[in-house]
Design a protein that fits this description.
The structure is a single chain. The protein is of the alpha+beta class. It has two domains: 168 residues, Nuclear Transport Factor 2, Chain: A, CATH 3.10.450; 205 residues, no CATH class. The protein contains ten helices and 14 strands. Strands 1, 2, 3, 4, 5, 6, 9, 10, 11, 12, 13 and 14 form a twelve-stranded antiparallel beta sheet that branches. Strands 7-8 form a two-stranded antiparallel sheet. Helix 7 packs across helix 8. About 24% of the residues have low confidence.
Amino acid sequence: MSKSAANVKRRRKRMKVRQQATVLGAQHLTMRSNKGQGEVHASWGKEELHKQTTSRKAPNLRTSQQNKASKEDKAVVKAAVTPVTNNAQKEKNKGWKLTLQQYITMINQAEIEQHGQRVSECTADELHNKRLQERLHRQRERDSFRSAQIAGSEMKAEILSVSELEQEVIINVKFHLTRKISQDGKQYVEERTDQERLWLSKDGQNWQITRVEPIVPERKPRYGGNAQDWPLQYEGTEEEEPLVTRPYLNPDLMSSFRYIRATNRYLREQAVAYADTWWNKPNPSYEEFEANCTNYVSQCLFAGKAPMLYTNRRDSGWWYKGRGQKGKEWWSYSWAVSRSLAAFLSKERSSGLRATEVERADQLQLGDVIVYDWNGTNSFQHTTIVTAFDSKGQPLVNANTNASRHRYWDYQDSYAWTPNTRYRFFHISDLM
């Protein structure tokens, strides 16, 4: 093999390596800000390879050895040169990514300042700008009343999906916000995730965000109107038995928690430990739903040794088996639906999982439950579990739809909240 042919072979090998490193998948952007300093640090990092482009980078043909290559060798190299359209595609991606990076920077800064002016400067969606301003205003007023200040903030953004058209890009983005809260000389950390769908349009050489749509799964209860606020009666015709061995769910699935068979107390700390372990990821031992909040809270209660009340009817009791044959759902509505769980906890019973409804949030304890009716129509759509308290004795809660950890209980920092929002506070009985 001639030296020129060997050079071409090495160049082609390097081109292949560069091709495999090209990523069209998800990427992360991290923003860190400190209150009062006004500094924002950004760093992009590649995530796992999800997809791969077929583009190839043109080799550099400027060395003297390359100039001496044979005509045959040159023909081989020209076949591997990147078409102009691929370079244009790279420039396009670079353009909208810079716009997205600016938007994420402004979102993080807006969370620090609790004012949306910066965001409105980089988006043309007046409806969303107003929606954001209202949310931040509520949050600012609430934190002022609580004597709470933001001591620091970090935001990570994950691109979940990208749809590219000629002059438009549609992006689904997941934000992970971590805030350090200072209150009465003490500090705690709260975390939450949010999702947004962004539309970016090209205006000349620039990209602009023309529409922002918050994705709020807390407002989409599982089963919709199929799971009624049913009367909790446990008599009636039983369904066919599934091919699952009793007791249907082995508590030893939660291997990190020691199972005590002869217990008659609700273990609050154990429920909280489970809640903090699984707040931002699904436990593979259970089904995961699009609206997963009540399923997650039921898992926490069960991890705290609240016994299942099995009735073999979906509209009564509180139980979970998993999926039966042909994908049949074997769990009660009360396990997975917020208003059904509220109805179950409201029912008086002498043993097992039961609760007392209290009037105020500060009457709750660790491991207690809050349900949320966003529209004030007695149709509860969201469920959280108390996992900590601030210095004023107000509950901080965990949730798992738009995942949250140690979030202030009233959810006024959520797009789901409305002025008509109602709450029900359930104190879980210590004796089971």
